[in-house]
Each structure stands twice: as structure tokens, then as C-alpha cells.
Amino acid sequence: MMSREDFVSRFGGVFEHSPFIAERAYDGGHLREPLTAAGVHASLTAVFRAASPEERFGVLSAHPDLAGRLAIAGELTEDSRKEQSGAGLDRLSPAEHARFTELNSAYVEKFGFPFIIAVKGLGKDDILSAFETRIGNSRDEEFATATAQVERIALLRLTTMLPEAE
């Protein structure tokens, strides 16, 4: 089995800027070799779900705004940059960028964390549509939706890092 330090180094960023999830998964002793995307995802997700509401809120809050100031400044994590670029969010027209900025602001004001969606396979119009629909959710509904999206993002990231089960 890889060392704790190596495991956290490799998987600590799967849940955005939240290495505590990988640390707890490793310390829990539930990981089995060979490591697979599904197996590591199950362990990390179990830790995420067992985390306090404040810790889960912190994970949500660690995510960048879509097409936001971090993207413009080139300060996204490599995973986030690739994900947003793949959805075309790095190629928005000025009007589209203004709409994303407006929605980001309204969403954060309403919910207290950024809009989170697994963008793989989606285009900017799909994302805007989801944004416009989800901003009407209650805080509880949106917290549940956002945490489910975080788990989906983690699985998508892991499938690029690890093989599927044999």
C-alpha cells in the first residue's frame, strides 16, 4: 500500500483544496489495492458524507466560480482549469461572461457558496440553463445538489487518474 504522504499527495486535491478527505480515507483503513477509481471514490465519498456540515460547506466554498475571477487571473487548479476549458467557459463572449458574473454573484449571495456543476460533457448553454434553474432552489435543496455535484466531479477526476476495476 502506498504511504499516507503519497496517497494524500496524489488524491488530496480530488475534493477541491480539501486534503483532509484523503487523510481521513487513508487513516480509516478502508482502501484496498489495487487502487481503482471506484474504490478510492467510495472511500473519499464516505469521508465527505461523514464530515460535519461545516466541513462540507468548506469543501463547497473551496470551489471556484465558473468563468470567474480566478479563471481570468489564471489561478484555478489545473483540474478546474481543464474542466472549465473543456466546457468552453474560457471562450465566453462579453455578454455571456457578464451573465455568468451576474449569476455567480446572485448564487453566492443566496446560498453562501459558489455554483458547482460537473461540467464534463456540458457546454456553456447547458451550464447556464442549470444555473438559472438551480438558483430557484431552497438552500437545503441546493446544498444537497452541490454536494452531489462535488462527488461527481471527484469521480470524474479519479477516472482520469486510476484504472477502472478489473
TrEMBL record:
The keyword Lyase applies. Residues 2-158 form the Oxo-4-hydroxy-4-carboxy-5-ureidoimidazoline decarboxylase domain. Pathway: Purine metabolism; urate degradation; (S)-allantoin from urate: step 3/3. It catalyses: 5-hydroxy-2-oxo-4-ureido-2,5-dihydro-1H-imidazole-5-carboxylate + H(+) = (S)-allantoin + CO2. It comes from the Bacteria. It is an enzyme of class 4 (lyase). Keywords: Decarboxylase, Lyase, Purine metabolism. Pfam families: OHCU_decarbox (PF09349). NCBIfam families: UHCUDC. This is 2-oxo-4-hydroxy-4-carboxy-5-ureidoimidazoline decarboxylase. It comes from Rhizobium laguerreae.
